[in-house]
Each structure stands twice: as structure tokens, then as C-alpha cells.
Amino acid sequence: MVATEEKLKKHGIHNVKIYAADITDLPALEAAATEIQRTVGGIDYLIANAAFVSGVTSAGRPEVLRKDMIDSFSTNVVGFINTVNAFIAGVRTGQVKKVIAITSGMAKRE
Ligand SMILES: NC(=O)c1ccc[n+]([C@@H]2O[C@H](COP(=O)([O-])OP(=O)(O)OC[C@H]3O[C@@H](n4cnc5c(N)ncnc54)[C@H](OP(=O)(O)O)[C@@H]3O)[C@@H](O)[C@H]2O)c1
């Protein structure tokens, strides 16, 4: 969080407020959502960008594959659902009311 604040300052960005929450931790997300609505009001855009992206290859390593799949499901599926559930009430009171999910090419149906 401090590193992100420093980076914003370095780039002359002063109108961004930072809140921290692990998306696998629903109570932490709900606390962040409550604080955001208290300070800025309704949420126009909820952008779900956080994701677990494995940095290792699991080829021939079933234990690595198992851990990667559990971490991926926990963050990229349950974490996304947690994020929407925690923030949707705030989105409903925003002006634009948009939820944007950042996915990978593999999620594209065509
Ligand atoms: N890079 C690509 O080629 C690519 C391609 C297709 C889609 N995407 C998608 O684009 C989005 C961003 O990816 P990226 O390449 O920027 O990945 P990244 O550099 O690994 O960034 C992922 C971000 O998610 C955060 N995060 C991970 N787990 C979290 C959790 N449990 N709670 C809260 N935050 C968490 C990380 O925070 P920390 O830094 O604190 O860990 C990091 O800021 C993802 O949704 C990804 O699936 C990326």
C-alpha cells in the first residue's frame, strides 16, 4: 500500500485514494466497501482486476498443479464473487452502475 502511494506521488497523481483488502477475505472486503461508501458515496465502476496468475510451470509436478488450481479457484472465482457481493450495494447507488471483470483470452467464447 505504501509502495503504491509512493508510485502515485512519483507520477504526480493526487486524486486517487487507496484501500487494501484480500479478495479471498470477505469481511475485509466488506469493511473496505463500507469505508469507500462512507468517504466517496456510490460506486460508478467496480473493476475486478485482482487475480492469481501462477508464475511457475506445473508440467510433471502434480503437487504444484494442485496448489495452483486451488489458489486460482480461491482467488479468481470465489474472490471475484466476494468482490461483487461486497460492492454491489454501493454500485447500485452509483450513477453509472457498471461492474467490469478483467478476464483472460481463455474466457472469450468466440
Ligand atoms: N498479464 C497478462 O498477460 C494478462 C492476460 C490476460 C488477462 N490478464 C488479467 O489482467 C488482470 C491483471 O493481471 P496482471 O497481469 O496485472 O497480473 P499481476 O501483475 O499478477 O497483478 C495481479 C494483481 O492482483 C492482486 N491480487 C492477487 N491476489 C489478490 C488477492 N487475493 N486479493 C487482492 N489482490 C490480489 C495483486 O496484488 P499484489 O501485487 O499485492 O499481490 C496484483 O496487484 C488479471 O485479472 C489477469 O487475469 C492478464
From TrEMBL:
Protein name listed in UniProt: Putative Uncharacterized oxidoreductase C24B10.20
Domain of life: Eukaryota
Pfam families assigned: adh_short
Listed transmembrane segments: none
InterPro entries in alphabetical order: NAD(P)-bd_dom_sf (IPR036291), SDR_enzymes (IPR052184), SDR_fam (IPR002347)
Database matches in SUPFAM superfamilies: NAD(P)-binding Rossmann-fold domains (SSF51735)
Originating species: Glarea lozoyensis (strain ATCC 74030 / MF5533)
GO terms for MF: oxidoreductase activity, acting on the CH-OH group of donors, NAD or NADP as acceptor
